[in-house]
Amino acid sequence: MTQPPFSFQPVSAMDVPRFAGMPTFMRLPHVPMGSEHFDAVDIGLVGVPWDTGTTNRPGARHGPRQLRDLSTMIRARHPVSGIEPFVARKCADLGDCPVNPADTMDTLGRVTEYFTALHAAGVTPLVAGGDHLITLPVLRGLAQDGPLGMVHFDAHTDLFDSYFNGCKYTHGTPFRRAIEEGLLDPKRMIQIGIRGTRGGDDVEWGLEQGIRIVTIEELYDTGFDVIMAEARQIVGDLPTYVTFDIDSIDPAFAPGTGTPEIGGFTALEAQRMVRKLQGLNLVGADLVEVSPPFDASGGTAWVGASIMFELLCVLAA
């Protein structure tokens, strides 16, 4: 029997129902690094199923699997921009990056090695976490030619120095470490949606480094379009990474996360902000902190998968 020719297009729901078959991100072909068709991949969707950096409610290690499952509802064309990312670029689910659930430093090394190789192969990553510490080794892999800019959607700055007797590597510390390591240019960073009760020097330290920190109050008072225009100006034309913590969205829309904060923006407002990133020099993006144990309905994962599609469209445009 002759095998059908290989295609980078998602499986059609007209051929296989969306609830059937092996789930991959957005029903794309599974093309692991080093496999036959890997050299043709432009954008690789990758899971990093790890949450040992979590300091409170765990479960984000299960995020990539649930995001894959819920993403089978994603269709081919963006409803507003008309972008068809699976036509514009060769996209594939690369599978999951190797991790060690019992060893933080070993995992950081494994993830760094994986994304260094991905970057060397010329593949643009769209990453599904996992807790927010995973972004640090992703940045280590991508910032080979100098510090990157960053657009960061989050309820929290993740700029703390340490936690619990001096632990330097948690989901609350990745961007302080990234700045110290020269992976990020703080003057080309903007954090959007920051809110919640506070403790520590994270905001003060970030402002001292030159990071633009936009609280949720300022976002609403100033206006979404104004803030996103400022974000574009801050990162400019140089290489930039986008990181999206699902807890930036109000828990009314995305309750399934480890550190929810009330008073966030809506899912639609999140979509519209991500769309404003089109045309920037983006080297990759991630969606993190979806925790299925706190997402009984799967609604948070559906929001997360939808934001991943928004990110995919701006990467592919």
Please, could you describe this protein's structure?
The chain is of the alpha/beta class and about 325 residues long. It has one domain (about 40-315): 3-Layer(aba) Sandwich (Arginase, Chain A). It contains ten helices and eight strands. Strands 2-1-3-8-7-4-5-6 form an eight-stranded parallel beta sheet, with helices on both faces. Strand 5 (about 185-195), helix 6 and strand 6 form a beta-alpha-beta unit. Helix 1 crosses helix 10. The protein is globular, with a radius of gyration of 18 Å. The mean pLDDT is about 95.
Summarize the structure.
Helices cover 31% and strands 16% of the residues. The protein is of the alpha/beta class.
* Shape assignment: globular
Counting DSSP H or I runs of 4 or more residues, the number of helices is 10
What is the CATH C-level name? Alpha Beta
In CATH, the architecture is 3-Layer(aba) Sandwich
What's the arrangement of strands in the largest beta sheet?
A: 2-1-3-8-7-4-5-6
Report the helical percentage.
25-40%
Secondary-structure-based class equals alpha/beta
Extended strand count: 8
Distance between the termini: 38 Å
